[in-house]
Amino acid sequence: MDVPLELSAYTRVLRLASTPSWEEFSQISKIAGAGILLVGLLGFVIFLVMEGVTSVI
Which stretches are transmembrane (predicted)? Predict the structure, then answer.
């Protein structure tokens, strides 16, 4: 395990990284929020279906 080589690779990546613009950040936030809502909605629908199934039985 060559620690100096790994550290140089990490620093190279950090130098290439840049802060996103407000537009990029806003778009990423909207997409992530929509994904969270979609997963929550899917879980709620599954919950409703399971409640319906158990009430019939």
Answer: 31-50
Question: What is the rounded CA–CA span in Å between residue 26 and residue 32?
Answer: 10
- pTM value is 0.65
Boundaries of domain holding 27: 18-56
HEC readout, the chain: CCHHHHHHHHHHHHHHCCCCCHHHHHHHHHHHHHHHHHHHHHHHHHHHHHHHHHHHC
For 20, phi then psi, to 5°, come to -70, 150
| Spans of the chain, pLDDT less than 70 | 1-3
7 domain residue, yes or no: no
